[in-house]
Amino acid sequence: AGRWSLLGATALVTGGTKGIGHGIVEELARLGAAVHTCSRNEADLNKCLQKWEAEGFKVTGSICDVSSPDEREKLMEKVRSTFDGRLNILVCNAGTGILKPATLQTPEDYRYVMSINLDSAFHLSQLAYPHLKASGRASIVFISSVVGFMAVDYLSVYGASKGALNQLTRSLACEWAGDNIRTNCVAPGTIRTPLTEQKRVEHRVAVRFEGCNDDFVTKETHRIPLGRVGEPEEVAALVGFLCLPASRYINGQVICADGGRTVNGNI
Ligand code: NDP
After folding, report:
1. What is the rounded CA–CA span in Å between residue 137 and residue 216?
2. What pLDDT shows up at residue 219?
3. Of the residues 11, 55, 218, 233, which has the maximum number of CB atoms within 10 A of its CB?
4. Best residue for ligand 1 mutational test, from 62, 72, 195 (most atoms within 8 Å of Cβ)
5. Percentage with pLDDT > 70 across the chain
6. What pTM was estimated for this model as a whole?
7. Does the C-beta of 262 come closer than 6 Å to ligand 1?
């Protein structure tokens, strides 16, 4: 396979049934990889697997709640047996947020967000390590967020989980480079997915705490130099690149796909 192909590569993408993860599964499969994905909802997963099979993509899947250590171990066992112990690509995409003022985030809220966004990424990386190493040429991509760099109201726990992912990227990039495992991270801005639809609804609830009624989407769009929110495939393209042999000298980077949002001083 050439520099711009993933033919013969194997990949695990968490949370592939919706939004950004769905786009990443399709991008990697289109580049030639055999992909395994997971989500918590069996009906959604089966629907996606059927669609991908009809399109000729090599995608398998299993039910896994990545917040559970036991289920993570089962997922990696499934990946090991499916791919004969060799994994070229790990994309930790599954993630979520709970929009609430910091004073109202409960211990359960905190645990829920941290276990899905951060604990799972660290533990899955540990579990994948022998298989990534065995593949001879591997790439880990974490999906963090621009909220890992800049404060957004009501996303304190989410932001902390994403900031930690950004630093985990740099640590693993150095620790595992000798095993030919690169580690990078993609930080999306606002992307049109089921998660942001839900966030918008929750935001309207959350802003009532402050007695303000600004329109989140309109305000946000004005802050993005490209003047619009992004689409899942616009994040997936960058993830695909970071998995390709073409990016083989890129290691330890956190790259935003945000339409210029984080560099805009004109706000
Ligand atoms: P969505 O909620 O639209 O999709 C999330 C996907 O992950 C679904 O397939 C969902 O399936 C799965 N998932 C969620 N929780 C779990 C879990 N505990 N175990 C297994 N699978 C799970 O999210 P997005 O596509 O918007 O977000 C994807 C990633 O991108 C997240 O890490 C998010 O933080 C990040 N991001 C998103 C941005 C955006 O604007 N959309 C901006 C910045 C970052 P199911 O619920 O059935 O399990």
Report:
1. 42
2. 80
3. 11
4. 195
5. 93
6. 0.96
7. no
